[in-house]
Amino acid sequence: MSKSKNFPNPHEYVSMEIPPELEGWEEMYPPHFLFGEERKDWEKQQFWYLDKIHAVHPMPPLDQIFQQAWQISLAQHTTRIFCIPPAQGIAHRMVGCYQYICAIAPPSQEVIMEKAKLFGERAQYPVDHYDELFEEWLEKVQALGKELQGIKVPKELPKYLPDEDIFPNHFKGYTPAYELMESFDRAVNYTYKAWQYHFNYLNLSYLYYLMFFDVAKKLFPGISDSAVSKMVAGAEVSMFRPEEELCRLARLAFENPQVSSILRQDAPSKEKISELSKFAQGEKWLIELEDSKEPWFNISCGSGWYYYEGSWKSNLDVPFGYLKNYLERLEKGLSIERSLDDISEARDEIVAQYTKLIKSEEDKKTFLDAYNNCRVIYKYAEDHLFWIEHWFHNIWWDKIREIGKVLVKCGALKETDDIFMFNRLEVPTLIEDAVTTWALGEDIPMLKWAEKAEKRKKILEAAFNWNPSPALGPAPEEVAEPFTIMLWGVTTGMVNDWLAGSEVNPDEVTSIKGFAASSGVAEGIARVIKTTDEISLLKAGEIMVCPCTNPSWAPVLSTISAAVTDIGGLTSHAAIVCREYSLPSVTGTGIATVVIKTGDLIKVDGDEGTVEIIKRAE
């Protein structure tokens, strides 16, 4: 344990510890996301930690829109809609291009009592009517995504308005300048609305899991976390459909040796598609591919939070790489799909075993009610993930790039993606400057937006090479806030490890502990994965060690033997997906990617939540 009982003061840290290469970073984000004098008294009392689930990398300014939107939506569903009694929101601050968050302390007892009454009246209905409510939710989200897709962005700001747009033809009364301004405003509004929908049932899904977890722990004091988690595994959800579509396509290809042979080649996807289009069975398979692409290939190649990650739809080399792997496994007689029937059977068996141990009928009812409520709504945690954080986000990025192309044509920016170097409050000013310059006539200068974009790209690059403090502010004596523990995986033990900091020599660590996220024991060679680009390095049987998992990595889970993460609790995506693939997993270790090296022989115990380093790589 470090002698220091606190992490750095956030205001002092911002003024003294940020590398000089990041000079100017503050201009990249709205002022209310910065530590400052006006809120200093409140800010310095809070415990802030890096959000390594939603913002593992430095934040491009326009990508922050999702963070801005979820801060509002998560909090309002907790504090104003379902009124979860002790819970409040999660506040955000940006420091050197990294996002820090803090769970706000509970309100007064009077407010807790007010909320408790409302919560009792409001929380059960969504569970009792979940299927119909989710169907309505999905219709709204899909309609909103189509509205976003349908926003008209002009191709350019023309030198003169074309004849067809003025008298005697139809005269709209406005120009592409207005359409360009309107297109961004509408895109922003739709994105905020999508994130309003995002949390409609998410907080409740986590809450009902926590309630079931609490009931199980009280009735069975010795039950392991992994045993409780196993009781809610086995779900058919949207987030797994992209991988299931790949399995379907792989099996279709496997039926035709010529199609399979082409897909197993070491060649770019473009070349493979060209070869497949030359014969009937290949064309037939390509039709099936097109059917899968919309909507299921609208999955990010990374986390779903960054514009530069791309998607399966925009970068077909990624899913085609997985297809190649699947076909090679099928050639060897190996399975490629997750065993949903086996997972469901194991779930039902363990629930039945523990139910038999309950002697009181009242306790049995309490247990089964909590279990059934959790099972009904918990699948929303993975259903919403695809539709908002992947499908909708990809539509947003496509639409913003349409706007970026216009700004390049009119000379405001050098490259289309430079638009992401400006936050959502700056982009309207950028667009207005561009259209004003266009409207004024010839030889009118604009502000130097392109230069500013270049400067900010260099700042973000420097931020990638900086290792900020894992936390800021006073360290809590105990981390007790449920979502902080169960979703982010931040525990008292992890905070103590952070405080110890440099006192720990990674080479001397022989074991680490985290959450028993998914049961099972596996021993194998570690492969440390810190970026999406490195996922292709994983070999069959290896143990993946990473900061956190990304949904698009699901296809590799059938080839590795276990997974270990730095961040994430029992309700994190990493924990959920590993349970769904029966993959032993320990999440929320805090330091796995620091103390474990690629090539180390390690043992993962997903029942106890431990990782043992058996032998260091030579």
Highlighted features:
Glucose Oxidase, domain 1, 23 helices, 8-stranded mixed β-sheet, 618 residues, alpha+beta, 4-stranded antiparallel β-sheet
Secondary structure layout:
Layout: H1 10-16, H2 40-43, E1 48-50, H3 64-81, E2 90-95, E3 98-103, H4 109-122, H5 125-128, H6 130-150, H7 176-198, H8 202-219, H9 225-230, H10 241-254, H11 257-263, H12 269-276, H13 280-296, H14 317-331, H15 340-356, H16 361-378, H17 380-409, H18 427-440, H19 449-464, E4 471-472, H20 482-486, H21 492-500, E5 511-513, E6 515-518, E7 521-528, E8 543-546, E9 562-565, H22 573-580, E10 585-587, H23 592-595, E11 601-605, E12 610-615
Parallel strand pairs: 7-8, 8-9, 9-10
Antiparallel strand pairs: 1-3, 1-4, 2-3, 5-12, 6-10, 7-11, 11-12
Helix pairs in contact: 3-7, 6-7, 6-17, 7-17, 7-18, 8-16, 10-13, 10-14
Could you estimate the helical fraction of the residues in percent?
A: 40-55%
Radius of gyration: 26 Å
Low-confidence stretches: none
Kindly name the structural category. alpha+beta
CATH architecture assignment name of the domain at 485-615: 3-Layer(bba) Sandwich
Q: Quick one: CATH class of the domain at 485-615?
A: Alpha Beta
Q: What would the average pLDDT be, to the nearest integer?
A: 94
Total number of helical segments? 23
Distance between the termini: 30 Å
The coarse silhouette is globular
Strand content: 5-15%
Largest sheet: 8 strands, mixed
CATH superfamily of the domain at 485-615: Phosphohistidine domain
* Largest sheet, spatial ordering of strands: 5-12-11-7-8-9-10-6
CATH topology-level name of the domain at 485-615: Glucose Oxidase, domain 1
